[in-house]
Amino acid sequence: MSRFNKKQAKTKQSVPTSAMPDVVFMLLIFFMVTTVLREVELQVQVNYTRAENIEKIEQKRLVSYIYIGPERLGGDRLGETRVQIDDALVDDINAIRNIMYDKLLEEPRLIVSLRVDQDSEFGTITDVQQELRHAGTLRINYSTLREI
Amino acid sequence: MFNKSGRKETPEINGSSLADIAFLLLIFFLVVTTIDVDTGIGLMLPPIPDDTEPPPVRERNLMNILVNAQGMILLDEEPSAISEVKSRIKEFVDNHGVDPNLSDSPDDAIVSIKTDRRTPYRVYINMLDEVMGAYNELRNTASMDRFGVPFSQLNDGSVEREEISDMYPKKISIAEPDEG
């Protein structure tokens, strides 16, 4: 009888947690490395369309985004379709060619990713495309999600 | 007395809150992380035409796609459903001069896309998706015949991939928009 008692008393009950900070740090470093901080504050609403035959853009450094969609007003209201480049809405559509031309000089292999709301009409996109042609940034990509 | 107390206190920083701090940072990064979508349909825009006349294109080598304001698709002037686009494009590109109304060779075939100002973007993308699908299927078939592997399995920049891409070049042109 006494032998059993003795055995039970010696058993350790707690799980060793000394390695936990190491594990957490490893996860932390993983997320820090993979995180791309959100660079722009979206002022237009963009719901992506879906498509099947899509390709991935591997080199993210080459990509410059143009957002096209209804403007976000306060309180869930949506306004006119607007064009946003970087952080600002573009008022004059003809300004796009200068903006994009400057970007092209910085990065000759520029890819312009058009992130267009699915309910937009194509006229705005035609205008933007004409501007891109004038700027010489001919490589474009229509952002879509993968069709499920 | 002093000696005794010195022996009892072991100099050590309390590290039990380290895990908490690390967790806090971890949660911060988890929240700010955005898994970004960077997929889409790639396209080359045609350059702005200069004064020189563009080389003449024979009518049979040109497939006109028009998407109108109502989201209807016209293939060479005849209205058609979006599901027909893929097979029609495949027939047109892969004709090799058999049918006198379709293209001479895949190298000559040009798909020209025209849109209206009020075309819904969604319909345009669906149509473009079908066109891309047609080319992908053609390339896939060629790749399977030639090398026994699907086109997507061929490495980027490899000779095989170049060869198949040259067999079926994606000649997709955006038509000049109408004035006004």
What report would you give on this structure?
The complex is a heterodimer of chains A (148) and B (180). Chain A has 4 helices and 7 strands; from the N terminus they run H-H-E-E-E-E-E-H-E-H-E. Chain A is of the alpha/beta class and 148 residues long. Chain B is α/β, with parallel strands linked by helices and 180 residues long. Chain B has helices at residues 2-8, 18-32, 84-93, 121-147, 159-167, and strands at 39-44, 62-67, 73-75, 78-80, 110-115, 172-174. Chain B starts with a helix and ends in a 6-residue tail after the last strand. The model of chain B has no long low-confidence stretch (mean pLDDT 82). Chains A and B meet through helix 2, strand 2, strand 6, helix 4 and strand 7 of A and helix 2, strand 1 and helix 4 of B. Strand 2 of chain A pairs antiparallel with strand 1 of chain B.
Short description:
With 148 residues, chain A is an alpha/beta fold. In chain A, 33% of the residues lie in helices and 27% in strands. The model of chain A has no long low-confidence stretch (mean pLDDT 83).
Number of strands of chain B: 6
Radius of gyration of chain A, in Å, reads 26 Å
Give the largest interface: A-B, 52 and 44 residues
How far the N terminus sits from the C terminus of chain A, by CA atoms, comes to 66 Å
The termini of chain B sit apart by 98 Å
**Strands of the biggest beta sheet of chain A: in what spatial order?**
1-7-6-3-4-5
**Major sheet of chain B, described briefly?**
5 strands, mixed
Number of helices of chain B: 5
SSE string of chain B, helices as H and strands as E: HHEEEEHEHHE
